[in-house]
From TrEMBL:
Single GO MF descriptor: 3-isopropylmalate dehydrogenase activity
Natural source organism: Sulfitobacter litoralis
Gene Ontology BP annotations: L-leucine biosynthetic process
Reaction equation(s) it catalyzes: (2R,3S)-3-isopropylmalate + NAD(+) = 4-methyl-2-oxopentanoate + CO2 + NADH
Name of this chain's protein: 3-isopropylmalate dehydrogenase
Principal location listed in the UniProt entry: cytoplasm
Domain Isopropylmalate dehydrogenase-like: 4-359
Sites annotated Important for catalysis: Y141, K191
Main function: Catalyzes the oxidation of 3-carboxy-2-hydroxy-4-methylpentanoate (3-isopropylmalate) to 3-carboxy-4-methyl-2-oxopentanoate. The product decarboxylates to 4-methyl-2 oxopentanoate.
Co-factor note (free text): Binds 1 Mg(2+) or Mn(2+) ion per subunit.
Residues reported in the UniProt entry to bind substrate: R96, R106, R134, D224
Record InterPro entries: IsoCit/isopropylmalate_DH_CS (IPR019818), IsoPropMal-DH-like_dom (IPR024084), Isopropylmalate_DH (IPR004429)
Binding site for NAD(+): 76-89, 287-299
């Protein structure tokens, strides 16, 4: 049977950028004999408009059954006044929770042609290719006790950083697995100097390494130093694995090494399915961009590169993923630019579908 892909285009520019991915999927079917069973459904505001909920139970069931889910973006001003229980974001949160997507992959990859867009000097980032693996379902954003409490005659705000051995173990494994498909190097970041959870994190990551991944090069770094190293010499890293809080901050920092939001893909992986592959959700980092929605201006590359990640990590098609990434690199080198990739000096940008045309060509 063909691998199954559930497409949830969502709101705003979501359907626009996804339209280009669908053309690319069709191309792989025609030209590379790589067919998928593609299903389309609604998420976010689009699902709310039809069903009164940002994620219908049937859609949730399809997502759990699919080999991979590819999501565009959710949200928009039309839904800002809705009750939190039916806000578009809740559709995405439900997907993440029920698919148990504990490992969030955020690549920071700098195409040479766009190195001028980086916040850093060109030679520090040209050819950069790192992957941050962020633990996504535990840590200080979820730990109990949490709340604002009375203490004496003032209030105290409390969050708890909490990690179990098994939570650290599974995200460490996903980082080592990734490293084997890349540069075979993992740097684990925590604050074992001042945090108990950091001590346990370091110990468990080391143990997983020694027992099952001794072939992967492992180093440990305090997360504050890691932040410094990311902007001092980012090319020293291959895979970085870290907790939810540090990963939130470090991945946003790493994103800005590469330039435009319209270029950044992501993946979130969960526990293995029956066939041993992890449940997976792929999505661009950007949102629904209401300011440019419906105008054919959106850059489809973040969504296209998210599909490339699906090819590599869910469908075992690393060569085809590289083919697609190479095509993106080539069109950028040839000077194709959507509006978000124009420098301050301006120029004449191409449209969403023209970018799709160029990549297909
Ligand atoms: P945003 O990412 O939608 O837009 C930020 C800026 O980047 C805008 O100026 C936009 O035009 C530009 N931009 C974003 N993606 C682009 C692309 N592919 N091509 C060209 N330009 C692009 O973030 P914002 O404005 O904070 O949020 C807008 C809506 O999206 C909100 O409703 C928010 O809740 C939602 N959102 C959804 C996310 C998701 O679905 N995962 C993530 C972030 C925000
Ligand atoms: Mg963040």
């Amino acid at each position: 049977a063909n691998p199954t892909l559930l497409i949830l285009a969502g709101d705003g520019i979501g359907p626009e950028v996804m339209g280009q991915v669908v053309r690319i999927i069709d191309w792989f079917g025609d030209k590379r004999d790589l067919a998928f069973d593609v299903d389309h459904d609604l998420v976010g505001g689009a699902a709310y408009d039809k069903h009164g909920t940002p994620l219908h139970d049937d859609t949730m069931a399809k997502a759990l059954a699919a080999d991979a889910v590819l999501l565009g973006a959710v949200g928009g001003p039309k839904y800002d006044a809705l009750d939190f229980s039916v806000k578009p974001e809740r559709g995405l949160l439900r997907l993440r929770k029920e698919m148990d997507l504990f490992s969030n992959l955020r690549p920071a990859q700098c195409f040479d042609a766009l190195a001028d867009f980086s916040s850093l000097k060109k030679d520090l980032v040209a050819g950069l290719d790192i992957m941050i693996v962020r633990e996504l379902t535990s840590g200080v954003y979820f730990g109990e006790p949490r709340g604002i409490f009375e203490e004496g005659n003032e209030r105290v705000g409390i969050n708890t950083q909490r990690y179990t051995e098994s939570e650290i173990d599974r995200v460490a494994r996903s980082a080592f697995e990734l490293a084997r498909r890349r540069g075979n190097k993992v740097c684990s970041m925590e604050k074992a100097n001042v945090m108990e959870s950091g001590i346990l994190w370091r110990e468990v990551v080391q143990k997983v390494h020694d027992e099952d991944y001794p072939d992967v090069e492992l180093s440990h770094m305090y997360a504050d130093n890691g932040a410094m190293q990311l902007v001092r010499a980012p090319k020293q890293f291959d895979v970085i694995v870290t907790d939810n809080l540090f990963g939130d901050i470090l991945s946003d920092c790493a994103a800005m090494l590469t330039g435009s939001l319209g270029m950044l893909p992501s993946a979130s992986l969960g526990a293995p399915n029956a066939d041993g592959r992890p449940k997976a959700l792929y999505e661009p980092v950007h949102g629904s961009a209401p300011d440019i929605a419906g105008q054919g201006k959106a850059n489809p590359i973040a969504c296209i590169l998210s599909f490339a990640m699906a090819l590599r990590y869910s469908f075992d098609q690393g060569d085809e993923a590289a083919r697609l990434e190479k095509a993106v690199e080539q069109v950028l080198a040839d000077g194709a630019r959507t509006a978000d990739l124009m420098g301050p000096e301006g120029g004449s940008p191409i449209s969403t579908s023209e970018m799709g045309d160029a990549i297909l060509a």
